[in-house]
Amino acid sequence: MIMVRENLDIRIRDSIDDHMFGLRWWLRETGDIPLEEMSSFFDTRMEDYPYHMDRWTNAYLAFPGHLPSGIQDVLDLGCGYGLELDTVLPAFPGISVTGIDMSGAMLDELARRHPEVKRIRGNYCLTPFEESSYDAVISFESLHHLLPEPKLELYRKIFRCLRPGGIFLNCDYFACCEEEEDLLRDVFLKKQKAEGLSPDIPVHFDIPLTLPHESDLLESAGFSSCKALSSHAGACFLEAIR
């Protein structure tokens, strides 16, 4: 049994080492590419977006199964044009969904695909949420662009906008280890400073936290229960309950 455990640990370490080697190579290759403002990044990639997101088809299919029955009011953060809503809306007929996104092009496409969804164009970190107004807050592959400080403030807003017993379901990319978390944050801050960008300007760059650090933030925001549910091609469902 000990030998089996040791062999498993070796495989895990090897996998992390391979991932970190590839990440460092990618950072070197893309080091001269300037950071892009978030809404412009997605506005200019509308045509390629479905091909980029296709890898997470199984995650989209799993989304409704991780939401409790009986939900009525849902807030979708970084909704894009609603790929996760393609599965959530049919599974919960009659629910009211509000989607927030910074990309005007994405929201225009959301209006075409799901006209029943209320749309807010803006930064969800700055947009006020009405307290105790939602049964569920959801997000898909969006929050890994935030540093811990603004993320904690966002989680506090999410906690307050949920009704008692409400669920925050975040399907996202999390750092495999503290080394990845520290490396990406350091590269991001250096690029931000070198390019003279204000911290108030949202830009597209991955700065994920590890699952334990993400859970710590959620608990600091007031959530009483936090657990990982399932993972699909690197997109992990993290559930937090008010």
What is the β-strand count?
Answer: 7
Task: Enumerate the spans where pLDDT stays under 50 for 5 or more consecutive residues.
Answer: 1-11
* First-residue to last-residue Cα separation: 39 Å
**Tally of helical segments:** 9
Output the strand order for the largest sheet.
3-2-1-4-5-7-6
Following the backbone from N to C, one meets helices and strands in this order, namely HHHHEHEHEEHEHHEE
Class derived from helix and strand content: alpha/beta
Question: What amount of the residues lies in strands?
Answer: 15-25%
The top level CATH class name? Alpha Beta
Rg over C-alpha atoms, rounded to the nearest angstrom: 18 Å
Helix content: 40-55%
In total, the number of domains comes to: 1
Looking at CATH, the homologous superfamily is Vaccinia Virus protein VP39
Assign an overall shape: globular
In this structure, how is the largest beta sheet organized? 7 strands, mixed
CATH architecture: 3-Layer(aba) Sandwich
Question: What's the CATH topology label?
Answer: Rossmann fold
Mean model confidence by pLDDT = 92
Question: How do you describe this structure in short?
Answer:
Helix content is 43%, strand content 20%.
